[in-house]
Specification:
By secondary structure, the chain is of the alpha/beta class. Helix content is about 25%, strand content about 15%. The chain has seven helices and 14 strands. The longest helix has about 35 residues. The radius of gyration is 29 Å and the shape is elongated.
């Protein structure tokens, strides 16, 4: 039966047996509140509950009853007692987690069995439920759809479905609400194959890899992932990035190389925590000045585009920028050197590579990565 015990400003929801004694109930409350059992006074509807051996049902408490816990002045725990109580609380929390994981594992096994999944897949699912990691990368033969029973392992933290033949995602993917890392690289996914509700519920997602697919637009639900820190959409067919990318305020790395981008949205400047931006092998002819708002940006990779200039706002505003790669662009070394803010950037670049050489980290053959083009930078 369920009881609600108020103590100070806190309310504690308890699920106890009707045969639980009041003494045992007080010991449970001691672990939760730190108040010694001997100093506790339980009150229900103005009635003080007495008799330590009296059971909950014997005290005429009903399911959903609300109790008030009062303590006498001697109820404060000593330092040692407080530490012991904390240990008990941690043990109880660990026991609850183990019970929850076991329940999820049994549910997964039952779902696998009822779905008629092969015994081998059922055995793998048991491991997934235990570890919180679903590993279905590069299956043979390649998967054309995800196993429905795998979507029932709600405790999953990491899922790797890469290197398969997936053309669509099931809406049930959204049931993996605890997911933190999701790899969907090297499949055949399209925007049409991403139904509403497949990604939006994954509010704890930190890493999302959608590279090497067939996306011609960024799925709108991706921009609604508040904790996303790394997004890889390289090697697709993206022509633009949506303005809604500004909602990815936790983003640290955006990898969008090998697409068909003709411009980067100014709204990208709202992703102020961004540290790495990779837009190599696109069709960019200019950069928005709003990128100068990316004060944490350290690495900007723009090789193989159509850039003839770099905005002064970018070189001036991106105070952490130390790697700027512009190989195979129309921009000349002279034009880059003449850009306002270049001297500050160059000082950071030199400092970075001086440190690398001191640590005996070798630079790539043919010059450093920072360059207007490979030939000009070799003259440095």
């Amino acid at each position: 039966m369920k009881l609600t015990v108020s103590h100070g400003k806190a309310n504690h929801e308890l699920d106890v047996s009707p045969n639980t004694t009041l003494h045992a109930l007080k010991q449970l409350l001691e672990a939760l509140t730190g108040a010694l059992a001997r100093s506790q006074k339980l009150i229900c509807k103005g009635r003080v509950l007495g008799g330590g051996d009296l059971t909950v049902i014997g005290a005429k408490l009903k399911d959903g009853a609300k109790l008030m816990l009062l303590t006498s002045g001697s109820g404060a725990l000593t330092q040692g007692q407080a530490a012991a109580a904390q240990v008990q609380r941690e043990k109880a929390a660990a026991a609850r987690r183990r019970a929850s994981e076991a329940l999820a594992q049994r549910a997964s096994q039952q779902a696998m069995a009822s779905s008629g999944a092969p015994a081998m897949l059922q055995a793998r699912a048991a491991v997934w439920a235990k570890t919180g990691v679903i590993a279905l990368r590069g299956e043979q033969p390649p998967l054309s759809q995800l196993p429905p029973a795998a979507m029932t392992i709600t405790s999953t933290r990491v899922a790797d479905f890469g290197n398969n033949a997936l053309e669509a995602l099931p809406a049930a993917l959204g049931s993996l609400a605890a997911l933190q890392r999701l790899r969907l690289s090297q499949n055949r996914l399209t925007v049409a194959g991403m139904p509403t509700g497949a990604l939006a519920p994954l509010q704890h997602l930190v890493v999302l890899a959608l590279d090497h697919n067939r996306l011609d637009a960024l799925p709108v639900e991706v921009c609604a992932l508040p904790r996303l820190q790394r997004l890889d959409v390289s090697a697709n067919a993206l022509a633009t990035l949506p303005a809604a990318v500004s909602q990815l305020t936790s983003l640290r790395a955006l990898v969008a190389g090998q697409n068909r981008l003709t411009a980067l949205p100014p709204e990208l400047g709202a992703c102020t925590l961004l540290q790495e931006l990779d837009a190599r092998q696109n069709r960019l002819s200019e950069l928005p000045a709003a990128l100068g708002r990316l004060t944490h940006l350290q690495e900007l990779l723009l090789d193989d585009n159509r850039l003839a200039a770099v905005p002064a706002a970018l070189l001036q505003g991106c105070a952490a920028l130390a790697t700027l790669s512009l190989h195979s662009n129309p921009i000349t070394m002279e034009a880059l050197r003449a850009s306002e803010g270049f001297q500050d950037f160059d000082a950071r670049r030199c400092q970075k590579h001086d440190k690398q050489m001191t640590m005996r980290v070798m630079a790539p053959q043919g010059g450093f990565d920072e360059g207007a083009d490979a030939v000009d930078w070799q003259r440095w």
